[in-house]
Amino acid sequence: MNIQDILSASMSRREFLARALKFSVAAVVPVDDPYSVEPDDEQIIGEETLDFDSIILREINFDWAKRLRRRSRTDAVVIHHVGNTDKNINAAAIHRWHRKNGWAGIGYHYVIRKDGSIERGRPLDTVGAHTYDHNDNTVGICVVGNFELSRPTSEQFRAAEKLVGAICKHYDITPGASTVFGHKDFCKTTCPGIYLYKWLPDIIRNAI
Ligand SMILES: [Zn+2]
Hints:
Layout: H1 3-10, H2 13-26, E1 57-58, E2 76-81, H3 91-100, E3 110-112, E4 118-120, E5 138-143, H4 154-170, E6 180-182, H5 194-197, H6 200-207
Parallel strand pairs: 1-4, 2-5, 2-6, 3-5
Antiparallel strand pairs: 3-4
Helix pairs in contact: 4-6
């Protein structure tokens, strides 16, 4: 007796097909696409900025393929690495990659280059595209490199501390283990790499 015979014994063919279809639909991995807003939604971006005293912040006006949605609350910061390359790539390169995914554009709010300079990605007050199921309430930072293979530069550590501190101050969040995360805290991934993840407690301590 095959599986269909067994199932047919307890349900009609129609019911079997309906269930099979339901299963196949449910098996499709949902795409993390926080950009899909109604066409008539107002595009509200870039209204909030951080108070950066000593941080070099390169502002880039990206062309967004889709309208960005404003984030209604902010509880945490999520830290990432690039991962697929250890090259000192910039926010514009990530923007191109993410657009090819069919996204609005770069999914991170900030990118920290190897020299410690910080580039703005998605405007701070918009919903990012960096951590599945946690984009609605978090700010995403990408530290450039592959930290499974190499270590972040000391300039990147200093920049991350200042940036996390500035974001937490802006949103009145106390930096800590329940507010500053690595991507792997939420998803099955190695991001942000072993050599960055293990120093998150130091970044948190110095961000305060
Ligand atoms: Zn990540």
